Amino acid sequence: MAQNLLKKISAGISSYGPAIFMIGAVIGTGSVSSLVVSGAEHGMSLLWALFLSCLFFWILIGCVSRLTFATGKTFVALTKEHYGKVAGFYIVLAVTVSQFTSNIGVMGIVSEAFAKWTGMDFLLSAIIWCTFVYLMVFMGKYSAFERILIIFVTVFGVSFIVNLFLAHPSAGQTLAGFIPVVPKGGALIVGAMVGTTLAGSVVVMRSFVITDKGWTIKDLKHADKDALLTGALVFIISGVVMACAAATLHVMGKHVDSAIDMAYTLVPLMGRFAATLFVIGIMAAGMSSAFPNALVSIWCITDYFGISRNPKSLHFRLMALFFVGAGLISPIFGGKPVLLQIVSLAIQAIFLPLLVLFITLLLNNKKVVGQYKNSKIINVMSIITFIFSLFMAYQAVTGLVNLISSL
Predict the structure, then answer these.
(1) Phi first, then psi: what are they for 349, rounded to 5°?
(2) Domain assignment of residue 266, yes or no
(3) What values do phi and psi take at 311, rounded to 5?
(4) Is 301 a member of any domain?
(5) Is 273 a domain residue?
(6) Residue 247 DSSP class
(7) By CB count within 10 A, which of 191, 276, 337, 379 is most buried?
(8) Residue 221: half-sphere exposure toward Cβ, Cα within 13 Å
(9) Number of Cβ atoms within 10 Å of the Cβ of 275
(10) Which CATH number covers residue 385?
């Protein structure tokens, strides 16, 4: 009986595999970095940006699912077909640049945290973790990716959710966080939060993930539930991380300069063992995003050029070396991984508006999607999403300009 129950639970989780994959891609060291820095520097005042990002993320991945089902083609292929090679190349460039730079920060943070925890050399730590990620990509099986992500996301989520019961901001601070305001010096972090939560690359990934899952138009209703679950869990888990930082780092007046500084968010839970629990959580978060970062970049490139997306092919594995190898840049050339991660996320926010525009235009073309054309309410939400993405892209550019001028 217990065995049958476990099988049912496993089947239930598997039926929402794309949600787990998407959550794993979003909730990584990038989101942890931006959310912890946000909570540390500004308390809960940027909760509104997180909420809107998750809301619009849900809308976009729902739209991409419908677009993929209606046409039987991926978003990259459709953009190239209907708006030309330049437009298709823009999507590929946006994804590959943002994911390569993201992996510099992701793997840098994981390697730095692990190195400081164990006393190991930073570069050696990076080599170990980059090798581990590459081996996961080398496995080349979607179902295996799904199972690995379930483990990583669970470990990461539990480590912060348990901590929230011991350290949490007041209800008043949390509610006040839903009032839209960009505090002084908060432009870059707002852009980074949107870049990691409302991530264009993850929206593009949705098209590939549901295709590899084997879903078709008959699975549209289930895909909508899967999209809603994705958006809701991303908001809950991200909100927990921000709240932990707001209740600890912000209260103590501490700043985040290195990966291990973020361990203070877990002090109430484990005291002097906080660093241990944090490193476990950050490694799980890093692994849950590092190899999806590499995968979506390769998927886009192979799809654009019309070559095999088989993960076991030689060209796939060679490209994986390039994207996974990004994790060696920080220890070799120097730089603060947390800052590099936030910058990479801000870059994602800059790329987002055109991606939203292409999705909206395709879903309003009856020749492309037929009866699955956008409804009026979805169009209104898509326009609001586009306006929001423009505003956040502006915030990201402003933050990057201020950062460069301060160097």
Answers:
(1) -65, -35
(2) yes
(3) -65, -15
(4) yes
(5) yes
(6) I
(7) 191
(8) 1
(9) 18
(10) 1.20.1740.10
pLDDT for res 271: 61
Q: Please give the structure tokens belonging to residue 231.
A: 């958006």
CB 250 within 8 A of CB 96: no
pLDDT given at position 125: 92
pLDDT at 232: 92
Helices marked H in 119-141 — which ranges?
122-139
Spell out the SS3 assignment of 264-291.
HHHHHHHHHHHHHHHHHHHHHHHHHHHH
pLDDT for the residue numbered 58: 92
CA gap 345, 312 in Å, rounded = 29
Question: By the 8 A CB rule, do 51 and 235 touch?
Answer: yes
**Residue 71 lies inside a defined structural domain of this protein:** yes
Q: 296: domain range? A: 25-174+201-406
CA distances from 116 to 105, 211, 279, 331, 375 (A): 16, 40, 10, 13, 52
Number of domains in the chain: 1
The Cα–Cα gap between 289 and 64 comes to 20
According to the model, what pLDDT value does residue 34 have?
78
Integer Cα distance of 68 and 60 in angstroms:
12
* Alpha-carbon gap, residue 198 to 195, rounded angstroms: 6
Reduced to 3 states (helix: H, G, I; strand: E, B; else coil), residue 181 is coil
Are the CB atoms for 309 and 316 separated by under 8 Å? yes
d(C-alpha 282, C-alpha 152), whole Å: 10
* Radius of gyration from C-alpha coordinates of the chain: 20
Region for 140 from its dihedrals, namely left if φ exceeds 0, alpha if ψ lies in -120 to 50, beta otherwise: left
First-to-final CA distance of the chain: 63
Question: How distant, in Å, are the alpha carbons of 11, 143, 150, 175, 253 from that of 7?
Answer: 6, 16, 15, 40, 47
User: Percent helix, strand and coil across the chain, each rounded to 5?
Assistant: 85, 0, 15
**CB hemisphere CA count around 104 (13 angstroms):** 20
